[in-house]
Write a structure and sequence with these properties.
By secondary structure, the protein is mainly α. It has one domain. The chain contains 12 helices and no strands. The longest helix has 30 residues. The chain is globular and about 60 Å long.
Length: 323
Amino acid sequence: MKVRRSQRARYLVAIRLIAGLLIIAFIFYRAGDLREVFASLAAVKVPELSLAVLCLAIAVGFNALRWRMILGEMGARISLGVTVVGTFEGMFFNLFLPTGVGGDAVRAYRAYDAGLGVADVVQSALIDRALGLWGLSLFLLIATSLSVFANSDILGTSLIGVASVIVAGGLVAALAGRAVRYEFESKWIDRFRDLVINYGNVVLSGRFATGILPVLLVSNAATCLSAWFAFRSVGVNVPVVDASAIIELASLSALLPISVGGWGLREGVIVFMLEEVGFSSVLATAASATVSFTVLAVGAAGLAVWLVYPYRGGNAVQPEPEN
């Protein structure tokens, strides 16, 4: 049975790798003359591309702050440095591990290595992932409503509808966390119940509105600015709200378990959306490539962090609460 599961897992990884490569190949095929694409990339504006990398790195930093605040609401104490290291290295592993939650496991282990309990680190990582999805959807909802895509009957309505469902679902889950108090015979159901309860406690806490939510919005704004600068670096000048809608949809699509790290899906959505607003396949493909470079650059920083900061080995002593 274990052998079959192992084989099935390898097949799924291979399928996801092939799917991502096929999507990327199709993007380049549709672009037509690849020499024009590479010419656009060769003429990239370095200052704008550098700002794109900087903004994405800032977004990851705010994600680390959000995770620390979530841990604080759960009664756990951890330094910002540990969450920054864990979040950056987690981004790298999310991009290149065949599972969509590999990065979450890596950063959870980083927090565990710093002295936190298993339940706290696992639940905090899952809650942070859920809030990340919720914030992404909220930003997608706002950006799409203000963008040129709002004028598209099918596309705009679909994006607003999907984002609204996710945002509403996150709020309903928080309310459910406050209501559910039953104990079950299954320990796995009880663990899920505890997760929902902690999620509800975090979202409905006073600090969510005054701290976690603003940080969540700032990190998404930085991500959107990163895409806007990346687009501008190859001459794709779109309003910032349009760039925000595009990158948030691309990020949401990259979460689908179709390719490894969302590669291909993210780029495909960017190309499709830019073509929808009138840009050629060549420019749209070049713009998606700049976003890929930005993601790779910050991911490489995550790899460097992982290599430079070794684990302490074992579960360290719980740090003292801050004054």
